[in-house]
Each structure stands twice: as C-alpha cells, then as structure tokens.
Amino acid sequence: MKNTVGKMARCALIFLTATTYPVVANADLLLDKVVVIFDDQKQTKKDISVINDDPDQRLFVSVEPFQVEQPGTENESLKALMHEETPSFLATPNKLIVEPGSQSIVRLLNLEPNSQEERVYRINYLPIEKPPEVDSSQAADGVAPVVEIVVAYQVLAIVLPPNPVAKPAVRRNGKRALFSNEGNANYLLSDGRQCDPSDASRCLDLPGHRVYAGSSWSLDLPFNGPAEYNIRTPAGSRPLVVQ
What we know:
Elements lengths: L3 E2 L6 E8 L9 E3 L3 E4 L6 E8 L6 E11 L7 E4 L8 E4 L2 E4 L4 E8 L8 E10 L17 E14 L8 E6 L2 E6 L5 E10 L2 E8 L2 E3 L4 E5 L6 E7 L2 E7 L1
C-alpha cells in the first residue's frame, strides 16, 4: 500500500511533530545545497554536506526521502521510501551525528538510472535530540512522546530521463498567465519582473516556479503589460517574455 503524505513546503519546513524522543527547533543545521539534479544517466549518486555550525554541541539529524507523485498537479503527494523493499531512490545514512563545527555527508542514490521518465524526490533533514540508543542517561522505559514545533530542511532531487526536453507554453487572458509543459522534463521560471505600462518606474518582482512535465501553473499578474522571466530548461537558459 502506498504511504503518502500531503504537500510540504519546498526548502524550509515547520513540523508539529509527535515523537518518541524530543526534537529541537534551534539546531545549527546547514546544507550545502537544496536542489540536486541527476542529469547524467551514468551518474547514480550525489552528495549533500550536512554542516553543524554550532562550535560546542553535537548535531543529531534524521533523514527521510519521499518520491513526489504527480508533481506540480492538484493530486501531488509524497510517498515515503524508507521502508520499501525495492526503492527507486535512497538517502544514506538515514540518521547521522555531526560533531561541533564539522560536517558529514548524506549520499543520494538513484537506483533506477535507466528510467524513461523524469522522477522527483524530496528529502527531509530533521534536527533531533540525542536518540535514546546513544543516550546513556535514558531511562529503561524510554521517553514519553512530546509535541514540538520543529524547523527542518528539504532537498529537492530531480532525476532527468534520457534526452530530456522541456516544452514550455504560455497562454494569457488579461492579467492571468498560464504556463504549461508538454515535454518530458521540468523547466524553472526565475527572476520574474513586470512594470506598470502607465509608469515605467513602477516595477514588481514576480514569483518563481518550477513547472514539471505534464503540469501547469497559473499566475495573476499585477499589471496589463508584458512580463519577463528567465526560463531554465535542460537545454540552457533564455529570457521569456509573457505578452
């Protein structure tokens, strides 16, 4: 049976979590990257550096990967991979200890390098308190569950298919723009900007977005005039004008 959870924030997450050991909200956890793209069929592994910026305290981190099903659509969901017998993707180790002022590596493994479809994963990095198995002061009957608000981090991992091609299309109706993608790979909209046709000095930044294969995204523009984006596809980057 599929184990799914709802949509989650893309880079920084806030959890309201019940656990068998306490969690921490202010751990000095840093990651060297939050987006990883497997764009070479022969490359099956990527590394994420987990950095402990605290000079005095050890950092304990839990790592959990999810596969994003139907990314970018209304039915998007996350399927947990940790307990699957034959997962398509792994993050190892799933728990680690990072010494003060140092860093450790979490390796992301693509176990289906010859997949013909783009696959999307999200990997949660959750700072936790010292687990019971390494806490000598832990009582024999364990720690009672607690509820805490936790700040965590999420890495986006994308596995591109062979010969990836994004096919961006834009339709506009008044101030609403609809971006779609009929290709087999995602494209990224960034550095969006639009100026008021009646006052060229009045310009606003527009939100960025990643449009996955087979999905679409709509945006209400602030003005009636043209808007500009930078669009990044597997073939490279170029300007995009929304008329």
